Amino acid sequence: MPTLLEYNVRKADNAYWAFAIHDGHHISPALEGYYQLNEEQRLREEDPHTGCMVELPCNQFIVHTSRFQLDINRKLEEAIYRSPDMAWGLQVYKELPPASLLQQLSDDYHSIYTQIDQWIEETIAQHGYFIAFDVHSYNAKRQAPDEIVDEVSNPQINLGTLYNDEKWRPVIDQFMASITANQVLDQNIDIRENVKFKGGQLAQHLLQKYGDKGCVLSVEFRKDFMDEWTGVPFMPVVQAYKQLLMHALKDLQNMLPYGSTR
Asked: What Gene3D superfamilies does its record include (predicted)?
């Protein structure tokens, strides 16, 4: 049976990867009839425009399927939102899809992780290491559209680094320095490590298998680049965040020994 997961991969001749695994909004026609949530409700918890942000001069992996169909940033047993406690209190389905479709989603999960492993192994074989930008976004106005954001508890950029080997500390520090050396709309940038998020299943999986050979930077942008309740983007901020990643990528590529093929 063909995969229900839609994604796009672009390969580049360098050791860097940019992932946007929650960018997607698409639901397979085979599953649409089982959903109770409408598109607007789904969009609120997805990470729209992160796919645009990772269109960088490096390897790219962008998922077009909604996390409400299959969330590959969670363990398999949590990747299908079967109950409200798995989905921010939301009742996702009118009724669960049949066992055959659930099995297909499980197969898709295993297949995509096998494929990602293959890509990373190829990158390591060619360059000796890999560095991944795992790009996400998060809501900071949980109660109401006019809520005042608690900026103490909700950094503008949360950088998840917890699961990286300490040997990659210079890479993490360089990424942080590159971001803070820039501004967004003439404002300094608040980037902090592991405040809201520490790195999801993708980061944990890659670092458990390949942590001696690579670093995963899980970048969570607070949804300042859009109205998180309506989904309307603020494109100058989207583009500014993309430029931040572009600058960080360039600065990391200039580092030694990790910035060149070895």
From this structure: Zn-dependent exopeptidases
Domains and CATH numbers, the chain: 7-253 (3.40.630.40)
> Taking residues 131-149, what's their average pLDDT?
95
Distance CA 201, CA 107 (A): 17
Tell me the pTM.
Answer: 0.95
Q: Which residues are CB-contacts of 157 (< 8 A; sequence separation ≥ 6)? A: 179, 189, 190, 191, 192, 219, 220, 221, 222
Q: Pull the structure tokens for residue 151.
A: 């900026």
Report the residue count for the chain. 262
Helix axes 201-210, 99-127, angle to 10 degrees: 50
**91, 84 contact by CB (below 8 A):** yes
Tokens of 179: 């971001």
CB atoms near residue 230 (< 10 Å): 11
Decide the pairing of beta strands 214-222 and 130-138: parallel
Give the pLDDT of residue 261: 39
Distance between CA 206 and CA 3 in Å, rounded?
22
Does residue 154 contact residue 140 with C-beta atoms inside 8 Å?
yes
